[in-house]
């Protein structure tokens, strides 16, 4: 029986679909929404901005607040309370590392733009291949 579900979430529609799927498929499970604040790179402007903040952890929480608010609204529409967690790092590595504490991972297949599809699709693929627990990829 699945009692703990990890749902990595960004601001993409596929992440929303993944959360909705997790809530419907595992109605009695404890669901944790995970947001990963990426490591700074030339392609990740928000991460670079966060790296320049005085208190990185506080800035990451603030960055994740909108995503978590949306996740809570979706969960409340299903009559469920969720937990949230923010971590810093490479998305695929962070998700795989966090998955050790869960029975399954439910992840969106990709984001909306071509760049999102390549990046997030690669994240989903890496998590699918490396996770120590079962992974459901939602489209």
UniProtKB/TrEMBL annotation:
Domain (UspA) ranges: 1-139
Gene3D superfamilies assigned: HUPs (3.40.50.620)
Listed InterPro entries: Rossmann-like_a/b/a_fold, Universal_stress_UspA, UspA
Keywords: ATP-binding, Nucleotide-binding
CDD domains according to UniProt: USP-like (cd00293)
A molecular-function term among this protein's GO annotations: ATP binding
Pfam families per the UniProt record, alphabetical: Usp
Family affiliation: Belongs to the universal stress protein A family.
PANTHER family linked: STRESS RESPONSE PROTEIN NHAX, UNIVERSAL STRESS PROTEIN RV2623
Name of the protein this chain belongs to: Universal stress protein
Source organism: Haloarcula terrestris
Highest classification ranks of the organism: Archaea, Methanobacteriati, Methanobacteriota, Stenosarchaea group, Halobacteria
């Amino acid at each position: 029986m699945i009692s703990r579900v990890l749902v990595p979430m960004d601001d993409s529609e596929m992440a929303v679909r993944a959360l909705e799927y997790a809530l419907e498929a595992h109605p009695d499970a404890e669901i944790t929404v995970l947001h990963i604040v990426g490591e700074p790179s030339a392609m990740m402007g928000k991460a670079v901005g966060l790296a320049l903040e005085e208190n990185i952890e506080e800035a990451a929480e603030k960055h994740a607040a909108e995503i978590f608010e949306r996740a809570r609204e979706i969960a409340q529409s299903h009559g469920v309370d969720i937990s949230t967690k923010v971590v810093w790092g490479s998305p695929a590595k962070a998700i795989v590392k966090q998955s050790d504490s869960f029975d399954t991972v439910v992840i969106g297949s990709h984001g909306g733009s071509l760049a999102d599809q390549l990046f997030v699709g690669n994240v989903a693929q890496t998590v699918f291949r490396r996770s120590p627990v079962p992974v459901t990829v939602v489209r």
